[in-house]
Design brief:
It comes from Zea mays. By secondary structure, this protein is of the alpha+beta class. Helix content is about 15%, strand content about 25%. The chain folds into two domains: about 1-80 and about 270-350, no CATH class; about 90-260, OB fold (Dihydrolipoamide Acetyltransferase, E2P) (Beta Barrel). The chain has helices at about 10-15, 15-20, 65-70, 100, 185-190, 195-200, 210, 225-230, 265-270, 285-295, and strands at about 1-5, 30-35, 35-40, 45-50, 55, 95, 115-125, 130-135, 140-145, 145-150, 160-170, 175-180, 215-225, 235-250, 260, 345-350. About 30% of the residues are buried.
Amino acid sequence: MIELSLSGKRALEFDGDQVLDVGQQHHVIAIFVGTLVKLYKGEYTFLSGTSACRWYINENDIAEIKAFQKSLPSEPVPIKKTYLQNDDATHKFEEKSLEQLKHVDPFLDMGQRYQCTATIIGITENQTWCYKACKICNSAIIQKENGYKCTKEGCPSTQFEWKYKIPFIASDHTYNLEFMFFEKKGMELIGKSASTLRKQYEPKEIPPDITSWIGYKFTFVVRVLSKKSVKTIDPSFEVLMIKEKYQKEPIISFISSSGVVPAESSSSTMAEYKELPLLVPITSKDIEKKERSTSQPEHTEETQDMDIEPSGIWEESQISNKRSFGDPNYDKQETTDDKDDLPQFKKIRSTHSQGKSKK
């Protein structure tokens, strides 16, 4: 196995969400061309894809892809999203009980991070598990008479996508508090995007994929959600990191307060591949279309509003320029070859069951 890193526009063009979604029930077979083998810090070998890199994913008219599909088992192994370890994973945070977190000041302690261990015992009543998120800044999108409008002042976006905002209630026997899971942590916990679950469940209809985590004990790194906390008796916290997951345990002894929802549940070459099922095509993102539709910069700022998912890890875009596979005249010259730009990459793990790369 070798890791492949995409940088610059190639990272924005790669539709990782679509790959993850399709990969839950279908094979994802990819051919990457125009990559270079690089060494990071003298010991870490990986494939680098910059301006010369192109890819072909699940294209049924490419013999190499169909040949590889034939070697795979009929039942695909679901793709899993992995997360790189950041500084928070090794940093020691102040450990607090939920009784102590109850007294955190939403203004004076804004931005402070704490570590706590608690068991999820339910979901806050009368709240939804997802929300309409602005495609540019992740702020909440509301419906107006003439369409949709972003709630962030100055944002011109009128398009949205469904993202997680799961209001779990957790307890450690000292107190019960609300812990909010936004899109990144929601996907890490559940393994599916909010948009995938939204195809089956209404915002007020809690999916079993979410309720199945009730009863599990976790160690979290959290911070207070200031704007929401000033409107409620007890503060609400955003889960920034899941440090550890423990075994499921009975929650009857935890449930003692109201507002908690308990658990519920070519023709000759391709002829031999005719019997294979068609792969699900995966396209790239059109980032040029997005740039034309808005004057806003591509980067987004992290916020601390409970209605806004801190962004910056998944940038929504799409691609339109695609050259034919096998073109011998593609430009192999790298325009970006900075050895220090690894942190800006979007990581893709290539395994024998999910795809192959070709230089």
